[in-house]
Structures are given as structure tokens and as C-alpha cells.
Amino acid sequence: MQTTLIHGDDSYRHSAAVAPEISVSTTFIHPTPKGEIVPGAPSDYDPFEPGRHVYSRYGQGVSTRVEKLLGPICGGHAVTYASGLAAAYAAAVHYKPKRIAIRGGYHGFHMSIKVYQAANSAVEVIDIDDEYKPGDLVWIETPLNPTGEVRNIKHYADRAHAVGAHLVVDSTFAPPPLSNPFDQGADCVMHSGTKYFGGHSDLLCGVLVVKTKEEWFELWNDRTFLGNMMGSLESWLLLRSLRTLPIRVARQSKTATELAAWLQKIEQTPKGKEFDGVAGGLIEKVWHSSLQKEASEPWFKEQMKGGSACFAINLTDPKHAELLPSTLEYFVSATSLGGVESLMEHRIISDAGADPKLCRLSIGLEDLEDLKADFRQAFKKIARPAKL
């Protein structure tokens, strides 16, 4: 995977520059006509393997290179979009379901479904454990936002395919090399590339990956006329970021799994006692994929090749949950996830339906011991009795 991400787009390098160049042009010069002109479609333009470019809404050099890297590492053919929600909406447009099966997860997509329903009022939302019908769109987010818990993709793939439904997996929390949902039967894989693919908190991107070239062309055609493609600068930033994806994700996953285990020890420490410099009774619950009861089951081990780098904790006191993100020094109090810097968010700020005691953690590339030390100092401050 690492070699593919560094050299997989070498054949699309059209200059002597080692680092990809930024192209901000929206349009490209037509060649001198040779032979008969085909109205409405340049006969020498193939969007899947472009020898030249026509208009940046169709595609341009850097976005092509990005898609040629994302496809192989995700196990299919990739189409990029302006944001994760743009990609999610494009999936709904592509499958044209009469019913969407979904439960929990990212609140943003639930709002996108409402937008889709506004133009398709007959579309019904059902639960993922309801009975499916032919043509249903089953939307499985795994690991789950915000807790990082893992759902069994194969279970839902088998149920969906048995009746002719389609399964889309939002794998944003488990990018390659942590998971490949196609191995468990997904029909389409979605990523908010803003997160781990981008990895530096400086771009918006969405990705859909499908199994066949025919599906890719369908998605490309929809994107061309919905107009929800990535911008040129964002494509360039993403291409830069993908070079280091496996290294970043492996480190973030390892640190998050170890930090979650450490925080769970604090959760298990009774009030009045102390663990590793932190008072017991402050943490009510730690949510992380490695702490699930299913983590030892064969399906889980086959699906996940490491722990999620984004997870959540419930604090005992809602006021502590409100104060903790801004009391930490290395964690940035902000929404989003997947960047090189660790983030913590009092989740109710972004998601009105979240538990007011829940804080979501996105683990970056800092040293584990520094993050532990940061928690020690922050917990001491928020647990200190207020002065009268």
C-alpha cells in the first residue's frame, strides 16, 4: 500500500517536477480537429483514463492522480467529491432507494437524508435491523461516530443481498489499512476524505469507491452534472496527504488503542482512589473498538486490522465534559477528526442529540505519554473544588 501511494500515479506525471504541480485552470485547450467531429463529446476524451483534459468539472490532472491512488488502496474505483456529505448524497442519487435503512452514526448524513426526502417525498427511513426489501439502501457506518464501535459488515451484507438491497459502508473511521469493507461484502464504500485521507485538517473531500468501471462512469456522470467535485487546491492537498496515509493511520490507531485502555483503567478506579495520577470517579464510560465485547470474535478480527483512532468517553459530570476539551493543552477543542493534531469535542456542541456527558477524541501523532500527562493536569484542574 505504501509503495502504491508513492508511485501509483507515476504514469500521470506529465512534467519533470518531482512534487505534483498545482493547476488552477478551469478549462483546457482543444487540440486541432482531426477527422469528423462528434457533437457534444470530444472523441479523444476518456474521463477514466484521460490523455488530456477538457473542463475541470469533468476532471483535471491532480484529481485524476488522487483517484488513481484511492481506487487500488480501497479495492475498487474511486470518485472524489467536494465533501463527505456530497459523496453520501451522491450515493443516494446513484441507488435511488425507496427506503434507507440506517441507525445512529453521523448526524450530518441524517440531515442529508432529509434533504433527499424533500425532493423524493416517498422515501422512507427504516432501522438497520428491520426487514429489507429489493432496492433498499442499507447504510452501515462502522466504526460508529462518535464512539468508534464496530458493526458486523458481513452480517448486513448477507441480509441485504439476500433480498436484492444495496449495502453502502461509511468507513471514514477505519480507512485503509485498518479495514476494507469490500472484503465483507459492501457494494460501495464511502469515506469523508476530509478526515484521515486528508489528515491535516486543511481540506474538504468525499470519496465513493465502487467495484466496476461501469458504476464509476455512472457516478462520474452524476458528479459532472450535480457539480459537486473537489476543487483543484483541495485535490493537490489530498494528493500530498495520501503519500503518508498508512504511516499516520497506523500510529494514530496504536496510540488511540493504548490511550483508551489507560482511560478505561481510570474508569474502573472507584471514587476516592487514584490510578496513575488521576482520581477515580471522573470517567463513567470509555468507548473504543478494542473494548467491545465482540473484539475477540472472528468476524471482528477479520474486519478490523487495528483499533479506531477516534473514540469517546462519558464523564460522570456533564460540567466536566464541558470543561475538559478547553482545559487540555495538546488536545485542540474542535470538531472533526483524523488530523495530525489530537482533537477533543464536547459532542453536544455539534450534535444536539449527543449525551451531554460525552466527549469525542480524535488521536493525532503526539507521543502517548505526553497525551497521558495532558489528561493528568486537565483532570486535576476540572476536579478541583470551586473557590467560594
Automatic annotation (TrEMBL):
Coiled coil: none annotated. Belongs to the trans-sulfuration enzymes family. The keyword NADP does not apply. Its cofactor is pyridoxal 5'-phosphate. The keyword Nucleus does not apply. This is Cystathionine gamma-synthase. The modification N6-(pyridoxal phosphate)lysine is found at K195. It comes from the Eukaryota. One of its GO terms (cellular component) is cytoplasm. GO terms for molecular function: carbon-sulfur lyase activity; pyridoxal phosphate binding. Keywords: Pyridoxal phosphate. One of its GO terms (biological process) is transsulfuration.
